Amino acid sequence: MDTEEMQRQVRVLTDRAEITDLLDRYLRSLDDGVFDEEWARAFHTEDVTAEMPIGTVHGREALLAHIRGGMALFDRTVHMGTNAVIEIDGDRATARGAQLSTHVLADGSGSVFISAGHADTGLVRTADGWRISASTLRVVWTQGPPPRLPDDVAAAQAV
Q: What is the mean pLDDT of residues 132-156?
């Protein structure tokens, strides 16, 4: 193996490790519950698009507001991601993995809502490292009572 091929392989392995770390830290951050500008910049590009079960948003500011509102529906959460298949193409990458999310509703009932599905993520290499540029969460199954959505979110879903 020549030096150039070894450098390429090290770069691929480094990129894969950095992307895995970013995705793991992102899911962990959802459970920590601190959603501010620093959080948004640490994980997402300015022009991110995110498709979630409660709607699709475009742009980092819109995503931040959406995550704040969505996570406020829960008192406590545990998000787990696994089986990520990462494909890297230069400064772009995709990742598809399984996601299991457990939520204790914030409505005082103590009810637990569980969702499981697939997370598809587009990533780009930036000057600050890898960032999420697009994400889609497709829920395959749920268990337990879902949270009551705020009227504005429920109305937007009905359209």
A: 84
